[in-house]
Amino acid sequence: MAKAAKEIKQEPLEKQLWKAADKLRKNIDAAEYKHVVLGLMFLKYISDAFGELHDRLKAGEGELAGADPEDKDEYQAENVFFVPAEARWPYLVARAKQPDIGLHVDAAMDAIEQENPSLKGVLPKVYARQNLDPTHWVN
Questions:
Q1: Structural domains of the chain in order of their starting residue, each with its CATH number
Q2: Which of 4, 7, 117, 131 has the most CB atoms around it within 10 Å of its CB?
Q3: Other CB atoms closer than 10 Å to residue 10's CB: what's the count?
């Protein structure tokens, strides 16, 4: 006779997310924490959008034939932010376990602002601060 499957009581997703956020937040004030998280989410988003267009430009099919994947104008024409090599998500992930990852992320934010004037002075550069534990921001 088959054993009855144990019922697993799971918390709602919202509760799980809050617990995870609190673990990551550690000693950072919640008002400051949003800048850390939202900045990383924005960086990941624009890096992904850039990567998709970069791959299409590299393939050079159809109207993109002969396009330079490192030409800022190609991205501007498609309303995609240009992300310099040192600010792209894979570059940062490769350095995620280094103790100076915060410096790399801050430098990435600076590089993105330099390449995209509409973002000048908008992106957070808070990742090299002492109260952030770099071991909690990997992945």
A1: 42-136 (1.20.1260.30)
A2: 131
A3: 8
Category of 26 on φ-ψ map: left (φ > 0), alpha (ψ -120 to 50) or beta: left
Give me the amino acid identity at 94: A
pLDDT by residue for the chain (139 residues), tens only, comes to: 555 556 666 778 777 777 776 666 666 677 777 778 889 999 999 999 999 999 999 999 888 899 999 999 999 999 999 999 999 999 999 998 888 998 999 999 999 999 999 999 999 998 887 655 555 544 4
Count of helices and strands (H, E) across the chain? 5, 0
Q: How is residue 138 written in tokens?
A: 């990997």
